[in-house]
Write a structure and sequence with these properties.
Layout (H helix, E strand, L loop, with lengths): L1 H9 L6 H9 L2 E5 L4 E3 L7 E7 L2 E7 L2 E8 L4 E2 L2 H6 L6 E4 L3 E7 H10 L1 H27 L2 H11 L9 H7 L4 H13 L1
Antiparallel strand pairs: 1-8, 2-7, 3-6, 3-8, 4-5, 4-7
Helix pairs in contact: 1-2, 4-5
Length: 191
């Protein structure tokens, strides 16, 4: 599995071989089965992750209903920032939708690595900015578009998700009912 991580990290021109070695030495590869929870609501999420293989979803229980707020697939970072950075209990669950392989690291190891290789601090900042932009796009999606437009935008920007994520979770993410999503999909096919 370290070969898979090495190959992934090797794509980035900014990493020297010594940076890649440092990351591999200070992270752990974890395996999860479909349905497993990586993080549960109320637990302190003291790890950051990178998805090597698999598909996961982030959700919160509200009045007994699961509200999905994110999906993660290969090569995507996965961090519950408020818990990871502040040591507070997570407000979210992270569940595997497929058998999953994650690279995990702790905040302590992250800070140690950044002292040894300043480029890692820069990369961490870039990841955080990217996640912030993703959150902004999601808020705009929910607030500025009707349900059909939300689904069309989701399809266009996330084609890799459509065959991997159950429609019930996509509907939840788009803040529509599964029945409404079914009608929307039917209308789109008829056009």
């Amino acid at each position: 599995m370290n070969d898979l991580l090495r190959k992934f990290l090797g794509q980035f021109n900014r990493f020297k071989p010594s940076d890649i070695d440092l990351i591999i030495e200070n992270t752990t590869i974890e395996f999860f089965k479909k349905g497993d929870f990586v993080v549960t609501e109320g637990q302190i999420s003291d790890k950051c992750y990178l998805v090597l293989k698999g598909c996961l979803r982030q959700f919160k229980m509200i009045d007994g209903v699961e509200k999905t707020s994110g999906f993660f697939i290969e090569e995507m970072p996965l961090v519950i920032y408020s818990s990871y950075l502040d040591g507070k209990p997570s407000e979210f669950n992270i569940q595997c939708l497929e058998d999953t392989i994650l690279v995990s690291g702790t905040r302590e190891k992250e800070l140690e690595m950044q002292l040894k290789s300043p480029i890692l601090e820069h990369i961490t900042l870039l990841i955080m900015v990217s996640d912030y932009r993703k959150a902004e796009r999601y808020i705009a999606l929910l607030n500025n578009y009707n349900p059909e437009e939300r689904y069309l935008k989701f399809m266009k920007s996330n084609p890799n998700f459509l065959n991997r994520i159950p429609l019930v979770h996509i509907a939840s993410y788009l803040s529509i009912t599964p029945e409404s999503l079914s009608r929307i999909r039917k209308r789109i096919v008829q056009k």
